[in-house]
Prior knowledge:
There is one protein chain. By secondary structure, the chain is an alpha+beta fold. The protein has two domains: 2-87, no CATH class; 97-180, no CATH class. It has five helices and six strands. The chain has helices at residues 2-13, 15-18, 97-107, 113-128, 166-180, and strands spanning 44-52, 61-67, 79-84, 134-137, 145-148, 156-159. The strands form two sheets. The chain has a three-stranded antiparallel sheet with strand order 2-1-3. A three-stranded antiparallel sheet has the order 4-5-6, covered by helices on one side. The longest helix is centred in the middle third of the chain and has 16 residues, at 113-128.
Amino acid sequence: MGEAVEREDTAREGAAREQHGEWHIAQTAKHCHACNAPFLPGQEYWSTLHVSTEGEDASPVLVRRDSCDACWGGAAEGIYWRTRRSENKADQNVVDIAAMHQLFLGLLDDDREEVEALRYVIALMLTRKKILKPVRQAGGARGDLVFKHPRDENKRLRLGAPELSEDSLERLKTQLGDILD
Length: 181
């Protein structure tokens, strides 16, 4: 049920774009909006899309709902289609964000130069997942980052953008591959 609310909120955020001829359509859910049962790899389910004008500003937004076969009752309005959850492992989130966060915290105290690039890339990943909170971009074109410190939000953590040669980029790619596997 919580995911359905998130979907509607996400759709409302796109309402401003709708005014310019663009509509935001939420991505496929990982769970049924009614019973919250997860969609397993290869499982078929129903998706509906309808225009809603509910809410404070009554602006039209697109609302998407994904339903398992047991909860599907047909579409009273809008459009609907049958779809399937991908069986491809590459399409599934394989990164354990909590483990990446713990790794990042462990790397904070490591001053070795070879760890600098790994720490920076993991920080970017955690920022994208909204685990780290950026305060500002520090170095202009250089790409340095400043975050609220993950151990003390009253402090700041500055991560300098690493200088990466082709060889060090290959090593970083291998390190990340080893961590993510």
